[in-house]
Amino acid sequence: MSKLSRALVFCLLFVSGAITPPVFAQVQQSPSSFKAVHVIGLEGIKHDTKGNVTVSKDTLEFVTGPTKSDVPIASVQDVLTGADSQRSIGGTLGTLSMFAPYGSGRFLSLFRTKIDTLTITYHDPNGGLHGAILTLPQGQASLLKAEMVTAGAKTSVSPAEEAEQQAADKKAKEKKQ
């Protein structure tokens, strides 16, 4: 077999998906670090702070710059996910746009992006009950929840039940349209 025919066979197998290079195999794995916004609840982190959430074998870690907050996975009592939306144009520009003439600022507030919410209840070392709320890009909260449950966190709604409920909700929405 000539070099050209071997290269052609390799390219065909690569394009068809029969061969996956190691670089693509790493990309397809679920991420271990998630970009999130801390809404409220983590000790030492200010409200509405952007950062990265990482699940290791025994802790949930939120890191933003030099500041970090750890929650032991064993202390997590419940993990809940939800879907929500937020204004696409926020901050100072979003507030100033409300004063635009003829109600155009109110019109701009109608443009929204979908997000996921993750709510965690956990006990501190002294036994006190705490809660934390994080927002993540759409579709990321269920992945983070699955990683936390795999690491040992407790939940009242299993990831499998949650996926079934989301599929049923999606089917009901499609049926209405």
List keywords for this structure.
177 residues, alpha+beta, PH-domain like, 2 domains, seven-stranded antiparallel β-sheet, 6 helices, 34% strand
List the helices and strands and how they pair.
Elements: H1 3-16, H2 22-28, E1 33-40, E2 49-55, E3 59-64, E4 67-72, E5 76-87, H3 91-97, H4 104-108, E6 112-123, E7 129-137, H5 141-151, H6 159-176
Antiparallel strand pairs: 1-2, 1-7, 2-3, 3-4, 5-6, 6-7
CATH superfamily of the largest domain: Pleckstrin-homology domain (PH domain)/Phosphotyrosine-binding domain (PTB)
Numbering strands along the chain, what is their spatial order in the largest sheet? 4-3-2-1-7-6-5
CATH class of the largest domain: Mainly Beta
Q: Strand count, sense and closure of the main sheet?
A: 7 strands, antiparallel
Shape: flat
| Mean pLDDT across residues | 79
What amount of the residues lies in strands? 25-35%
Uncertain residue segments:
18-31
Distance between the termini: 56 Å
Quaternary organization: single chain
CATH architecture of the largest domain: Roll
* CATH fold-level name of the largest domain: PH-domain like
> Structural class of the helices, strands and pairings?
alpha+beta
How many strands in all? 7
Order of helices and strands: HHEEEEEHHEEHH
Rg result: 22 Å
Helicity range: 25-40%
How many domains is the backbone divided into? 2
Count of DSSP helices? 6
